[in-house]
Every structure is written in C-alpha cells, then in structure tokens.
Amino acid sequence: MDPITSPGDELAGRLRAIREDEHQDPSRRALTNRELAAYVGTTAVLCLLGLLVMVL
User: Fold this and answer.
1) Whether the Cβ atoms of residue 33 and residue 27 lie closer than 8 Å to each other
2) pLDDT tens digits for range 32-49
3) pLDDT digits (tens, 9 = 90+) for 17-33
4) Does residue 50 lie within any of the structural domains?
5) Is the predicted pLDDT of residue 53 greater than 90, yes or no?
6) How many structural domains is the chain composed of?
7) Backbone phi, then psi, for 6, in 5-degree steps?
8) Mind listing the UniProt keywords for this protein, alphabetically (predicted)?
9) 49: domain range?
10) Strand ranges inside 1-56, DSSP E
11) Radius of gyration over alpha carbons of the chain, in Å?
12) Beta carbons of 40 and 33 less than 8 angstroms apart
C-alpha cells in the first residue's frame, strides 16, 4: 500500500521534481561572460544605429 501523504507533501514532491528537471535542462544554464558580452554589444550597436538613423 502507498503511504498516505498530505497535500503539502505532494506539492513538495512536485516542486522538487520540477527543480531537478530545470537543473538538468541545458537551456536553463547561466550565460557565459562571452555570451553576455555579445548580447550587450549587440544591444549597444543597435541603439547607436537607431540614434544615427534618427539624427540623419
């Protein structure tokens, strides 16, 4: 027989399973310094290009 669990225990188990799934998902990893610099650089270039277009 399965032990009787409370709704809180069931919720805790589900949250634990979700956390483990997200931890193993490679798309959830932190950005590397190189990737972050590329995003910031691209954003800066696009902003400067937009300013140039507005001025001209």
Assistant:
1) no
2) 999 999 999 999 999 999
3) 888 887 777 777 888 99
4) yes
5) yes
6) 1
7) -85, 160
8) Membrane, Transmembrane, Transmembrane helix
9) 7-55
10) none
11) 23
12) no
